[in-house]
Write a structure and sequence with these properties.
By secondary structure, the chain is of the alpha/beta class. It is 58% helix and 11% strand. The longest helix has 53 residues, at 240-292.
Length: 653
């Protein structure tokens, strides 16, 4: 599914309407579909569960034989055998339980691994727009809280359902064979187990959903304020106290939700315990009368009491499993909400792989527009939005009186053109400077070239190929970018450089770093290329990070270069060194530079002057200066101050 200008805006809202606790069949079948690769292990696991349940039926029969036969007859040999059986059966079931746990964990963890990997792979293919409109804490929450919730359902809940169902059925069969009247009496209290489940399921589902939302909010606060940039902002604006209070409010909501969930669950278990006690008392009362009348033996009632625990235990577990399984579906719903997000920019069927690129770039009537009404977002397209609407009355404490709704909302498009009818032709090897006021569309052009976004109208070609007809991977391999905000992983300098070319050797690293004039600095560090740069590279200065980013691009050796004023963080001396290092890098490569400095513009083969999304002027420095248009105005207000005496002489020549 593709999103283009003039289409619809897709707003993703969690499908969290309050409903009775029920499991959607499509959702359930989808979850179970992840078990297909493990079908052999699942069958073996089911056999183990059946064997365990049948073996566990034996101990109560041993108790009955002990009381009714062994003790009255004083049969010592049989007593010894029963004692061995009472010890051996738990050992055997325990060993089988280890195998059962291994296989269930293997299936469950495998399914969650597949689900987590699928979600990560899908999000990697999302366009840049998704990440500009989604909080990082929300994404982390999906991988942590939501996937863990789904994991609990797979590893714990589903095996528990199967085990308890088999135990329940087999126990009932044996109880009926012993005394059908007591067996019938045992199930009289079943409604006391089942009736509360519906109401509790609704309540716990809502509590869990709200808890996941609060956890996502808390994760977002942590990721924003405890990152390097966030911590720096908080400290420089003296907002520590306010941020601590904000975190306390959100984490307090998480706490209160957890307390309420625990309390509701405990009341539920209290009701189950009372129902179980009533059932046990009825069995002993009625069974006692039957023993006194000679209808059954004492051993039978003892065995019945033991089986009663095996009956009510699975019933309680299944009742709780119903609640747990329904609430765990919330986690799957939230994970699938991300997995099902449409990929905005995808390779077309039959997309070609770029090879031997020359670097001939053409923009043909390219327009790129923001869509939607109201305040314009920074980037166009689908946004991840969570909105609340009024719901059923709650408990008077702000709980349960809101709900969320997911829907695809059609929006009448109101366009703000970031680019409008842009056309230009750049020959291979040319250095192009993009010039214009803030918001003119310079960065948008550099985002369209590597296909981080697709044009709303028109097309962009590379060596005659429409960018939408080539694979994204092969296109990215031909392009190198250096932005103003350099991003480095919290890893070694070597690892950050090898991200551009994993097969590069030490000599390649050093050659690239020498070209970027950063090798001597790296060599002076105690650990050299194995020095850890810290979170986002904050152990390095701005100029050092920028030179390291340039070295990374040099190592990649792309055919197209995109630089967003790559020397903006350097002082005059280092800037001159880097510019000299970039001269051979530009040779034979098509390069686009967002220029804010005159020295960069003077080196350009062509200057594109942008204003409010329009290409207003195009030419060389001398040609544009002679026209007396926007470029001449920018030159006077922004670039003219950079001229020294030598620069003035060069221009007048």
């Amino acid at each position: 599914m593709m999103f283009h200008g003039g289409g619809w805006w897709a707003y993703l809202r969690s499908d969290t309407e309050q409903k009775p606790p029920q499991v959607d069949r499509r959702l359930l079948f989808r979850v179970l579909g992840y078990a297909r690769p493990y079908s052999t292990v699942v069958v073996f696991l089911l056999l183990i569960i059946v064997a365990t349940s049948l073996i566990q039926l034996i101990p109560p029969l041993l108790y009955r034989d002990l009381i009714d036969n062994v003790l009255p007859r004083r049969d010592v040999a049989r007593l010894n055998l029963l004692a061995l059986g009472m010890v051996g059966i738990p050992i055997l079931t325990g060993l089988i339980g280890v195998a059962e746990r291994y296989f269930s964990a293997r299936v469950g963890e495998g399914i969650i691994y597949d689900l987590r990997r699928q979600m990560y792979d899908h999000l990697q293919r999302m366009s840049l727009r998704f990440f500009t409109h989604t909080k990082s804490g929300e994404i982390v929450s999906r991988f942590n809280s939501d996937v863990v919730g789904a994991q609990n359902a797979i590893v714990g809940t589903l095996p528990s359902i199967v085990t308890n169902l088999i135990t329940l059925v087999s126990t009932l069969v044996v109880m009926i064979s012993i005394e059908w009247r007591l067996a019938l009496l045992s199930v009289v209290v079943l409604p006391a187990f089942l009736l509360p489940a519906r109401r509790v399921g609704t309540t716990l589902r809502d509590i869990r959903r709200r808890g996941l939302e609060y956890n996502a909010d808390m994760s977002n606060i942590i990721s924003e304020t405890l990152s390097i940039n966030g911590a720096l902002l908080v400290k420089t604006f003296a907002r520590q106290r306010q941020e601590v209070e904000r975190f306390a409010v959100t984490s307090g909501k998480v706490r209160d939700t957890g307390v309420r969930r625990a309390l509701v669950g405990q009341w539920f278990f209290l009701g189950l315990s009372i129902a179980g006690a009533v059932g046990t008392a009825l069995i002993y009362w009625v069974g006692g009368h039957l023993v006194l009348s000679g209808a059954i033996t004492v051993g039978s009632i003892v065995a019945f009491a033991a089986y009663l625990m095996r009956l009510y235990g699975p019933i309680s577990a299944l009742t709780n499993v119903q609640v747990e399984f329904i609430t765990s579906m919330v986690s799957f719903e939230r994970v699938f909400a991300y997995v099902d997000l449409p990929v905005e920019i995808a390779d077309r069927p039959g997309a070609i792989t770029l090879k031997d690129v020359n670097g001939h770039v053409r923009f043909e009537g390219v327009s790129f527009a923001y869509q939607g009404g109201g305040p314009q977002p920074r980037e166009p397209g689908p946004q991840i939005v969570s909105s609340f609407v009024a719901g059923p009355p709650g408990d008077g404490k702000g709980n349960g009186d809101k709900k969320e709704k997911m829907e695809i909302v059609p929006v009448v498009p109101t366009r703000r053109w970031a680019l409008r009818d842009i056309s230009f032709d750049i020959r291979p090897g040319q250095l192009v400077a993009l010039v214009g006021p803030s918001g003119a569309g310079k960065t948008t052009i550099t985002y369209l070239l590597p296909r981080l976004y697709d044009p709303t109208e028109g097309r962009i070609t590379l060596d005659g190929h429409d960018l939408r007809d080539v694979t994204q991977e092969s296109l990215a391999q031909q392009i190198g970018m250096v932005t103003q905000e350099t991003y480095l992983f919290h890893d070694t300098i070597r690892a950050n450089l090898l991200y551009a070319r994993p097969d590069a050797g030490q000599a390649d690293l050093e050659a690239a770093c020498r070209a970027a004039h950063i090798h001597d600095f790296i060599a002076s560090l105690p650990e050299g290329y194995d020095t850890v740069v810290g979170e986002r590279g904050y152990r390095l200065s701005g100029g050092e990070k920028q030179r390291l980013a340039i070295a990374r691009v040099i190592l990649k050796n792309p055919r197209l270069l995109i630089l967003d004023e790559a020397t903006s963080h350097l002082d005059s001396q280092n800037e001159a060194i880097i510019k000299a290092a970039l001269v051979p890098l530009f040779q034979g490569r098509t390069s686009f530079v967002i220029a804010h400095r005159l020295s960069t513009i003077l080196a350009a083969d062509k200057i594109l002057v942008l204003d409010e999304g329009h290409l207003v002027e195009e030419g060389t420095h001398g040609e544009l200066l002679a026209r007396g248009g926007l470029y001449a105005q920018l030159y006077e207000t922004q670039f003219g101050q950079e001229l020294d005496v030598a620069g003035l002489s060069a221009i007048h020549e």
